[in-house]
Amino acid sequence: xxxxxxxxxxxxxxxxxxxxxxxxxxxxxxxxxxxxxxxxxxxxxxxxxxxxxxxxxxxxxxxxxxxxxxxxxxxxxxxxxxxxxxxxxxxxxxxxxxxxxxxxxxx
Amino acid sequence: xxxxxxxxxxxxxxxxxxxxxxxxxxxxxxxxxxxxxxxxxxxxxxxxxxxxxxxxxxxxxxxxxxxxxxxxxxxxxxxxxxxxxxxxxxxxxxxxxxxxxxxxxxxxxxxxxxxxxxxxxx
Lengths: 107, 122
Known about the structure:
The complex is a heterodimer.
Chain A: E1 4-7, E2 10-13, E3 19-25, E4 33-38, E5 45-49, E6 53-54, E7 62-67, E8 70-75, E9 85-90, E10 102-106
Parallel strand pairs in A: 2-10
Antiparallel strand pairs in A: 1-3, 3-8, 4-5, 4-9, 5-6, 7-8, 9-10
Chain B: E1 3-7, E2 11-12, E3 18-25, E4 33-39, E5 45-51, E6 58-60, E7 68-73, E8 78-83, E9 92-102, E10 106-112, E11 116-120
Parallel strand pairs in B: 2-11
Antiparallel strand pairs in B: 1-3, 3-8, 4-5, 4-9, 5-6, 7-8, 9-10, 9-11
């Protein structure tokens, strides 16, 4: 099974900051990497698929990059509603494993 | 409007059994792979099982293989997860999710239900 290592597990930042979350796969997954945002008590919502394609309706301050084993999610200018939890997920091979999540906190 | 509504989550004793359901509407259910994902309260997401559009292929995470069975009824637009030999570590919110494809190569979950809580405890 492919293991997804996400870092950091938590991140303190301020509104307007630029932040980057990283995700590393235990083996190459090409560009089969998705990013989700989860608000407390809610189901996750996809932000980015295929490592870098923004899902329809997702603000352009979110961007993704990477291929192979190393990936990043960048939020260019944090908004108050962005201080929630983010997960990466690989869809290269079953089981389609998730990272352990990154919780964004207000500094 | 696409909707996924899970039901069936309850308190069950270790070793017990339970079947979760997911009612789908607003899309052609028989055209999509469907997946169960679970989340221990306060923790991360875990992919549990998925099933092909026609039910002919099913896959499981190692921790549930042999105990859980995923199935679907396309005539009733419903997805199921039969859970046997339940353990305390199966306690979680269980989500059903629709898997969609883009560019013939990328797969992700575009719609999720609200989740149903399964608690395994004596």
